[in-house]
Amino acid sequence: MSHVEQDWREVLQLRSPTEERNPRTADLDTVPADQVVRLILTEDRAVAAAVAAAGDAIAALVETAVRVLAAGGRVHYVGSGTSGRLGVLDAVELLPTYDVGEEAFRAHLAGGPGAMMLAVEGAEDDVEAGRHLAAQFRPGDLVVGLTASGRTPFVGGALAAARALGAATALVSTNPAAPLASEVGVAVLVDTGPEVVTGSTRMKAATAQKLVLNAFSTATMVRLGKTYSNLMIDVRPTNKKLRARTVRMLVQATGADATRCEQVLHGAGGHVRTALVALLAGADVTTARAAADRFPPDPSRAADPAGVRSAVAALAGQA
Q: Residue 1 domain-assigned?
């Protein structure tokens, strides 16, 4: 038996709900458009509950990422196809939202950047390409494999390379029996069941992975002090919408009017944390900046990872 035939047979024997036929959609091609849509959306309703069932594993992944990032490490997403593209999407959106770039989150897509716009399906089978990512990993990093099937060779190669370096590893998969799950420190396994169209993991499986990544990266940013209450305080105001959001956030957080918030923000050189402390404490910008610097973001600070409350309290104590 050739290596190609052996590999083909191994994939054929893969146990994954996403590869099973869905009995609820067996008549999919015989019904009108409104019923096709209804069938798809009915199946989608179960995805959020399936992700919620994996909440403890997602939380464990968050704690691992917080520990890694607080120590100066990086989080790497590794995936192929839809899973890999979702990793790219999550990583790049952290920059405008939380001012976090490639120094903290990096995404590696099988087939390279070009595969973001044009499918390079054979790239997922390249285990050596995954292993070569070791050149971009460090022992203190976290490598998160993204694969609906839980067996993608490219991802497996990357995870093996990460383990050899001593990096932390994790897996996000929609296969409860994911073969790679036993090889990682944290496995987030979401049982989304069979797809509407058999094997089309860009559907429920992809929706589940997007929900997992949303929860994971957002919770990680919150724990790292990137929010005050439920407001973004490290947003990068690179367009009119984001600049307006920054001022609106200060209004929402402090109750001051928009004109006052804009003036203080300008005086703080656009530094939202300083402006927020100044407005909450009723202090001048120079005093507020010094207080904010005394209480930098720290995930180990109970109930105040951003340090804003502590800075305001310190200024109140000086009054």
A: no
